[in-house]
Design brief:
single chain; alpha+beta; five-stranded antiparallel sheet; 15 helices
Amino acid sequence: MKLFTLKSGLLRIFCFFALLALAILQFRLAMFEQSEFSRKTDLSSSHKYQSNPYLLSWLAKQKHIFEADLFAANSLYQQALTVNSLFLPAWLGLAELKLDQQQSQQANAILDYSSVLATDIKRWRWDKALVAFQFDRKDILAADLSFIISNMKGKVRNDALRMAFSVWPDTMELEDRMGSDNLIHLFRYATAKKKVEEGLALWRTLRFQGIQELEKETLAFINMLLSVGDIKTAAEIWKKHFNSNNYMYNGDFKEKPLQTAFGWRIGKNKGVSWKLQEEDKKGEPARLHLHFSRKKNIHLRNIYQIVPLSGGKVYALRAKIKTAKVTTDQRPYLEVYGYKCKIPYKKSEMVDSDQEWRDQYLFFNVPEECDAVIVRLRRRESTYIDNKLAGDIWLTDFEIAETGENFTILDEQ
């Protein structure tokens, strides 16, 4: 009985404090609403914007652009500058207004003053660049775009790069206007937009700064050249700076796949996992290990390398392959075919289910008009009931060599 009385008392106290808190909250809300109502009745809409340079400039822009009321626009800009004499949008809007009033000398003087106000300031810099572009003031525009490209990111930088390439189509002048610190941004933009000629000109300037610092950008540029079919230029840069001795790159898998350019590309495929294994004490060489989990009837075609070659020759591909418990009637094999060109298709025999390290050879012919081939590990889907691929494959020592024989159009025919 005492316990029940104690619980009842505690409940009453809790309810009392809860109601008190609600009452205080309701009182504060009522006071806030009253103050807001009083403020709204005391301040007119005109009083609000008369002390706000942003609103004044916005209204001036509406008067100028949409109503063609130049007198009212000028008055509003002057009010904005009276409130804040350093407010850049008001100065820029006033410069545009003076230009429309055929007062070009005064308009340019205002733009010059705006440039002084905007020194080392990011905000409103793109707006000033647009005004400079409208005025054809390339001196101010170059400084603005150079600053934006160097100090800002994202869409604003991309817009500035697009304008820079448009205003200065001559790459030498573009480099001079944007400055040496922005060359890397120009090069990345040229690569992303597939501007081959501009990219090559920028590359010739950048390569003297050291290829080690530009490896990522150079590989992306080579890959872009491949995508547009300029294989010879891509191969020239590749051989000079990445792989001058061999046709295939990283054939022993001692390095990670580049996933671009003329390096190994290993994509994702459900039912397959891969890893690189280093040379070990048991005599196993460095290798690529593929494990098939018996979960999918795999169509394997995502492990390949684009290889630059000289056309008109016969080549031999060699690779070392080891397998363990590879299942199904359809097992992996090697194939060679032309990259953006046609060559006589060649493929090897399928690997055995279990085999120790074995050299796999494949001879193939490259026509004179072909500059690159694709070497790929392939497995086609099985039509059998038991079609899910399982087991392991190890690959290493990929190498392509010339046989000394020529392959001409007469041989092809």
